[in-house]
């Protein structure tokens, strides 16, 4: 005897070997023997063989009209044999009974199970909803097939182009656009990114990087809501005798800081470090604060930037020349002869700004000889620089002194052996780049006199204010570094801890409140300290162990790292463009690190680190032939053509102590979220509708 029975949601057939009261031993066609509960047996028969019966029954079931079967079915609970009698004939054959069973079992949208071999009609409205869902799934599957075919043929459907960055980086894996990409990539055996690029989904490599960055960090766009900058309500005193000036490059619009010098020749010189004061007008929790906190920082890239604050707000507080501007000022008094620091004082005031100096226009004029020798003359010295020669000369002398003091604490001198690279997109004029602009890359030696003046003044302000907040018990956002030992990174925290890399007791970013949210937060705390002194901890917006402060710290750390990585990526993009535009196929470079099967080298005259094949000694200088450039992966590699010299120990040491981490970010394959194991075979929509 043979039986047809249900096992784990499937119907199987086999020969009965033995049978007890409530179960039977059944041998399957494969030879496997199983114990089957009597309640699970739905048909018993002598012939034909189970495989033959099931094949015939499935063919009959596939031809059944389910709408008609639903009409014929009884209104209450019924068995499959009852439906077979209504649908086929009064005396249905064994195959017809099995066909009715299979049809009922595999159509949950028409019939609901009521027990083993027992069913009940689904309500008419449920049937209609299920049928509509099935048709929709069929249409979606047909759309997936059509889109996948178009991609395979090198054509990108508009719907996939619109969803490109979502598909690649934050996909809904049930979306038809995503499934079409997976199916096409599998069918063509092409990597998804390569498939999409070939199909024209990516307008250009530059647009790919730019739109990916916007998708991940500015999904609502880079525009600002309509916001009016509030005026400073305080009746601020005018800083008497101060003639402040800023030093920035020509592209800077967020002028955060200015300097002044008073008391020349008196024996005591007062240096003023004046910081733009949006914190005097903006308040935590305001609409403008919400915008700044969402962005955390201005984003920089060659030829363009996304500001932290709207232009109208920046214009209200920036230290533009020709007027009295609200400022938080640190006044530091120095002995004119010895440059010993005698004391500091913080004031909230209006500061006259007499000049906005631009270092890219003055570097050739304001040189070390010009600053150190009053008799040294430079041709075409601008009037603004000429009028400020004495203060600039003193500030340069002071900056060298402050740097030397820090280096004593640091334990060794700072060594900036590599230049800064400036990128200019010809004809761009601050507009959003297209990626096709001609790029110019120029060098500027680090530690140029004007840079040194500004950097040492800002370190003085950030360390002085950081220490002051710590003394008053007012929390702030600090940067610290426990030591210069390898692997010890700069960290952010809320406590005033030493910064070994700078050689200062504490360091709280406070001098760029128009460009960094940490500085705006610290400015609010500094303003409270200036107003309330020893009771500032009670009045400051952020209290000790404030959870909101930790949230800001965490958010800033993440955003700042992301923005810096994007800036680095775009500088690499334009460097690769520079190679292409100038037909450069060979570079001289220095080996900086071993990697598997090769080495990393740094180009001597461009901001480019890339791998070369073959092991090389660190510090060796080589001539390298460049390979093919991949603008999507931002990748290029090289082959060593010539070795110039034996590695110099002092050169390697200088590289290691350049003030930067040797763990260079080198491009490689783009990490995307498309998984080709998804959507292996589209399921039959008739078997997946809700019961």
From TrEMBL:
Protein name in UniProt: RNB domain-containing ribonuclease
Gene Ontology BP annotations: mRNA catabolic process
Taxonomic lineage: Bacteria, Pseudomonadati, Pseudomonadota, Betaproteobacteria, Burkholderiales
Annotated PANTHER family: DIS3-LIKE EXONUCLEASE 2, RIBONUCLEASE
RNB domain: residues covered: 235-532
InterPro entries membership: NA-bd_OB-fold (IPR012340), RNase_II/R (IPR001900), RNR_Ribonuclease (IPR050180)
Listed Acidic residues bias regions: 657-666
Molecular-function GO terms, alphabetical: RNA binding; RNA nuclease activity
GO cellular component, as recorded: cytosol
Stored Pfam families: RNB (PF00773)
Region (Disordered): 650-691
């Amino acid at each position: 005897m043979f039986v047809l029975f249900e096992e784990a949601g499937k119907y199987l057939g086999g020969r009965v070997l033995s049978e007890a009261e409530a179960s039977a031993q059944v041998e399957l066609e494969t030879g496997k023997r199983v114990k089957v509960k009597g309640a699970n047996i739905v048909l018993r028969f002598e012939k034909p063989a189970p495989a033959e019966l099931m094949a015939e029954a499935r063919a009959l079931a596939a031809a059944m009209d389910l709408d008609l079967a639903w009409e014929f079915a009884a209104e209450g609970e019924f068995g499959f044999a009852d439906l077979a009698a209504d649908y086929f004939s009064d005396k249905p054959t064994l195959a017809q009974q099995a066909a009715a069973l299979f049809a009922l079992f595999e159509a949950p949208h028409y019939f609901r199970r009521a027990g083993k071999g027992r069913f009940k009609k689904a309500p008419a409205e449920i049937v209609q909803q299920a049928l509509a869902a099935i048709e929709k799934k069929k249409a979606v599957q047909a759309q997936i097939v059509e889109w996948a075919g178009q991609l395979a043929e090198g054509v990108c459907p508009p719907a996939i182009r619109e969803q490109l960055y979502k598909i690649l980086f934050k996909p809904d894996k049930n979306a038809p656009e995503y499934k079409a990409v997976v199916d096409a990539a599998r069918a063509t055996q092409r990597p998804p990114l390569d498939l999409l690029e070939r199909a024209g989904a990516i307008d250009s490599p530059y647009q790919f990087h730019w739109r990916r960055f916007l998708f991940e960090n500015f999904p609502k766009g880079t525009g600002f809501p309509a916001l009016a900058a509030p005026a400073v309500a305080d009746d601020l005193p005018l800083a008497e005798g101060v003639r402040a000036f800023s030093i920035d490059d020509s592209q800077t619009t967020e002028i955060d800081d200015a300097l002044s010098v008073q008391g020349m020749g008196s024996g005591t010189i007062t240096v003023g470090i004046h910081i733009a004061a949006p914190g005097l007008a903006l308040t935590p929790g305001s609409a403008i604060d919400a915008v700044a906190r969402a962005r955390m920082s201005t984003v920089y890239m060659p030829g363009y930037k996304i500001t932290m604050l709207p232009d109208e707000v920046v214009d209200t507080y920036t230290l533009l020349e020709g007027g009295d501007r609200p400022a938080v000022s640190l006044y530091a008094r120095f002995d004119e002869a010895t440059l010993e620091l005698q004391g500091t004082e913080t004031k909230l005031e209006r500061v006259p700004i007499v000049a906005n100096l631009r270092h890219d226009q003055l570097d050739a004029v304001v040189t070390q000889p010009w600053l150190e020798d009053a008799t040294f003359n430079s041709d075409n010295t601008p009037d603004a620089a000429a009028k400020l020669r004495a203060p600039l000369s003193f500030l340069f002398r002071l900056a060298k002194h402050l740097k030397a003091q820090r280096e004593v604490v640091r334990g060794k001198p700072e060594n900036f052996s590599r230049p800064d690279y400036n990128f200019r997109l010809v004809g761009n004029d601050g507009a959003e780049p297209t990626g096709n602009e001609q790029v110019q890359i120029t060098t500027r030696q680090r530690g140029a006199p004007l840079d040194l003046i500004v950097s040492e003044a800002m370190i003085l302000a950030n360390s002085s204010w950081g220490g002051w907040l710590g003394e008053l018990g007012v929390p702030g956002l600090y940067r610290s570094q426990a030591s210069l030992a390898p692997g010890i990174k700069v960290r952010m925290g809320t406590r005033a801890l030493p910064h070994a890399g700078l050689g200062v007791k504490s360091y709280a970013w406070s001098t760029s409140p128009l460009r960094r949210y940490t500085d705006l937060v610290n400015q609010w705390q500094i303003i409270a300290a200036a107003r309330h002194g020893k009771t500032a901890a009670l009045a400051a917006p952020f209290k000790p162990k404030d959870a909101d402060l930790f949230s800001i710290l965490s958010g800033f750390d993440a955003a700042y790292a992301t923005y810096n990585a994007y800036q680095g990526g775009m500088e690499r993009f334009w460097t690769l463009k520079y190679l292409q535009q100038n037909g450069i196929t060979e570079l001289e470079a220095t080996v900086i690190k071993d990697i598997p099967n090769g080495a990393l080298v740094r180009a001597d005259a461009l901001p480019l680190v890339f791998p070369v094949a073959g092991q090389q000694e660190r510090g060796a200088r080589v001539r390298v032939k460049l390979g093919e450039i991949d603008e999507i992966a931002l990748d290029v590699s090289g082959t060593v053509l010539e070795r110039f010299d034996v590695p110099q120990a002092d050169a390697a040491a200088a590289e290691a102590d350049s003030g930067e981490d040797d763990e260079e970010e080198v491009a490689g394959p783009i990490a995307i979220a498309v998984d080709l194991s998804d959507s292996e075979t589209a399921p039959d929509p008739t078997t997946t509708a809700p019961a």
